[in-house]
Design goal:
Number of helices: 2
Shape: elongated
Largest sheet: 4 strands, antiparallel
Radius of gyration: 29 Å
Strand content: 25-35%
Distance between the termini: 75 Å
Length: 185
Amino acid sequence: MATRDVQVVSRDDGEKQRAFSGGHMGDITTLAWSPNGALLATSASDRKILLWETKTQKIVARYDFTGVINFAWHPHENICSFVTSEGELFIYPNFLSSENAQQLQKPLQPAPFIHDPLSETSGNARKTLTNGLKRPPNAPARREGTPDSLDDILGPESAGEEDDFVEDDDGAGYLDEVNGYGKRS
């Protein structure tokens, strides 16, 4: 019987990247990345929860649980929770061994790409931003040379005093005064 794999696919170009394979014998029912991306937890109809190291795509722990349909990591602690198809909620403090719990202390880990499409040096690659969104020196402003107001678009001759912009074309009798809510009624 063939195993069921988790295939990572690049969001940017749709290219298949690393695969987490050789673990589950049944259909995968849920997966969840640890908050820092160092670990991946998967569960399947084979009654197993597998814990994978993201960097190597190797299984580092196996747990036996039936019918797991949702899995969640605590954002800061070694606590995991999951729900079964029977409606049972399991909350496990110290879910990971001390060796695997060290993985949660690492900084944010990169996605398991074969290559990072955004790190290529071609002319089409996105450049890394330094200190946020800033224009290079002498670069034109984004809206430079475009009209910024209705007067710029229509020209100075349309800005006459008698042009009210609101025209009483339906005979509803618009007032010249502004009401208490700042509108003409």
